[in-house]
Amino acid sequence: MTPDILINQGILALFVVGGWFLGKYLHRIISNKSNKESSKGELTRLGETVGFVGGAAGILLGLLLVFAVQHYADAQDAARAEAVNNAKLFYSLGSFNESESIDARQTLLCYMESVTAEDWKATAAGDVTGAENTTAWTKELRSKILNLTLEDEKQSTGYFILVEHNDNIPELRQFRLLIAQPQIPGIVWFVIYLASFVLSALLALQLADRKYLGRVSISATYVILGVTVAALGVLDHPFAEGVASLQPVAMQGTIQTLKDSYPEAIPSDCPVLAVSDFVAE
Questions:
Q1: Are 30 and 39 a contacting pair, CB within 8 Å?
Q2: Segments forming the whole domain that contains residue 219
């Protein structure tokens, strides 16, 4: 669970508890200023208000969950698209000079290994620039592609497709790095906290005379709100470390498939081309 998610839970707890105590305080003031029977009748009519606020909060959280799930799914699709593009580039290299093709494929596999080992950590950390070593391997791969020898017209025709796949690499990588950023604005989180505060205060105001029912109600309210806010936080940080963190499964699977199919393209070593803050384990 990321620090942002823990902070969200802490803020939610403060707002819920604060609203509860404010509601009990207001109940005490109302009870002191009017007779017991009239105040009880007035507070009973709060049910409609509680229902309205609770319904509005439920709709807001439901819509946000749909939005967050879509964001998570888009991040998942981005990771898969990146792996598929790399596989297309790998296969397209088979039409060129054998030694140059093997060299470029080895470079591509080193790039992909760098993505799974280092660049993924940068994505999880929210670093939009990515790992420096992965960037260096991108440049190295581009150099190998641009220096391929074109021996006939067929290779010249296929070269344009090859270059297109190679140009897609930095684009898809940057999209993955950017989509890892949280999408729910701070003002929306404030609206959630405010709705939780008001709902908690209204529950306390209505149920202050019902000690156990009040405790059960506020506990159930906090559990539902807490779980929903936690789910929003997790889905809004799709690559952050946690139970639902997106892992480089597609990239790792593609690497293994390519290595199994073309053992001659397995690099003997992938040197570190640039010092990165996200070192592979």
A1: yes
A2: 1-44+184-236
